[in-house]
Amino acid sequence: MKITIVGTGHVGLVTGAYLAEIGHEVTCYDIDSDKIELIKRGKIPFFEPGLLELVNNNIENDRLSFTNNILEALTYSEIIYITVGTPMGLNGKVNLHYLYDAADQIAKNITQKVIIIIKSTVPIGTNRIIKERIEAVSKFEIEMVSNPEFLREGSAIHDTFFADRIVIGSESKKAAKLVEEINKPLGIPIFKTDLQSAELIKYSSNAFLATKISFINEIAELCESLGANIEDVAHGMGLDSRIGPHFLRAGIGYGGSCFPKDVSALIHTATEHGAELKILKAVNLVNQKQQDVLVEKAMHRFGSLNNRKAAILGLSFKPNTDDIRESPALRMVSVLLEEGVNITAFDPVSIENAKKQFGDNINYSSSIEDALLNAEMAFIVTDWDDIKNFPLSQYEKLMKTPILFDGRNCYSLEEVSRFSIEYFSIGR
Ligand SMILES: NC(=O)c1ccc[n+]([C@@H]2O[C@H](COP(=O)([O-])OP(=O)(O)OC[C@H]3O[C@@H](n4cnc5c(N)ncnc54)[C@H](O)[C@@H]3O)[C@@H](O)[C@H]2O)c1
């Protein structure tokens, strides 16, 4: 089938590439002409394992093309995926500015009836609003499908081809069936429902995962007071099939472009409808507090941090991505700078993004060794393989004082006990 993607970011590019890979003819459109030119030159605008190869293979096979010309993009097909960003606005409300702009462009430029599939995460009721907005301008018939995206950055390709389910929400049986047909080659279970339920499934799923993280982080704090070990506690809990082992790793809290904004958005939606989501409000608060835990441990250890030299290991919100949006590292670096700390940060791929945020206020290093050299303390923020597997002997050797604050529990306590390292971790 011929398909158009509107918004060629993390989700849009992966969507375009997987749809081409399973045999469709796809054109990806974006308002950012630099991004489109970059992809046409055989590069991709962000780091995502396996995506570059998938994109370039499908360009070569003539199934995937890119344009920043809206008319060219829209005359191409009757099936339009919207994958533009829906960032957090004021007071946790979703900023729908990009989505409305995309809808207005579609309304003005379509030349036939279309099926619009919204993959962006949008507040409950938005699909209906978009349909009305487009129909107010265009004379063509519009059918809407909510098809929320569940991929994780860093494992987006795997998550797409081996997803647990595809959710399809629509008021039109015909449109829902078509989206089912489009995705059939993936062989992934499909769950069909109405528009609002599909929209809410996305928010509730992310909110539930965030809840698991904040829950285990709160129990980790209790472990520290009680002398229990959070890893054993989480393992013992996860053995119960009703609970499961996933998302029970204590750390310095969740970040990224989805969990923080989706939790806030759901709280906001509920408030607008006269309901209060008390659990999610607590999830948010616990997460904000959790992002300060390592710095608090450092302050407790040193008294004053002023003029001390610190290494930050990892800036992205999780491994295998260069995305630093809402990364716990951002908050940590800002607080440490306020405390007068001299920071050198290492990350395998996120340095350029961090430079846009912190400029010359911190130093950047392309190796863990350089970041640690003569540091008085080190903070592990992101558990990249390079960081997780970094030999403990090197902390001893390179640092002025080997004091390690590990926000991802990368090392076992038994292993650390063999070195002269002062080691602080989470919930152990
Ligand atoms: N990133 C993730 O891991 C992830 C996972 C699941 C769901 N989502 C959701 O998917 C949506 C997209 O997220 P993302 O991370 O891909 O965002 P992104 O910022 O990486 O990409 C959005 C793209 O849309 C483009 N754009 C903005 N306005 C446009 C317009 N009017 N016409 C055409 N293009 C336009 C931007 O230039 C950008 O390239 C969001 O709603 C997000 O919550 C993201």
How does the SSE layout of this entry go?
Layout: E1 2-6, H1 10-21, E2 25-29, H2 33-40, H3 51-60, E3 64-67, H4 70-75, E4 79-82, H5 97-109, E5 114-118, H6 126-135, E6 142-146, H7 156-161, E7 166-170, H8 173-183, E8 190-193, H9 195-226, H10 230-238, H11 259-272, H12 278-290, H13 293-302, E9 309-313, H14 328-338, E10 342-346, H15 351-358, E11 363-365, H16 368-372, E12 377-380, H17 385-388, H18 392-398, E13 403-406, H19 413-416, E14 422-424
Parallel strand pairs: 1-2, 1-4, 2-3, 4-5, 5-6, 7-8, 9-10, 9-12, 10-11, 12-13, 13-14
Antiparallel strand pairs: 6-7
Helix pairs in contact: 1-3, 5-6, 9-11, 9-12, 11-12
The structure holds nicotinamide-adenine-dinucleotide.
Structural commentary:
The protein is an alpha/beta fold. It folds into three domains: 2-192, NAD(P)-binding Rossmann-like Domain (Rossmann fold), CATH 3.40.50.720; 202-287, N-(1-d-carboxylethyl)-l-norvaline Dehydrogenase, domain 2 (Orthogonal Bundle), CATH 1.10.1040; 291-424, Rossmann fold, CATH 3.40.50.720. It has 19 helices and 14 strands. Helix 14 (328-338) links the parallel strand 9 (309-313) and strand 10 (342-346). The longest helix is centred in the middle third of the chain and has 32 residues, at 195-226. The structure holds nicotinamide-adenine-dinucleotide. Residues 6-12, 29-32, 35, 83-86, 98, 101-102, 105, 120-121, 149, 151, 153, 257-258 line the site of nicotinamide-adenine-dinucleotide (NAD).
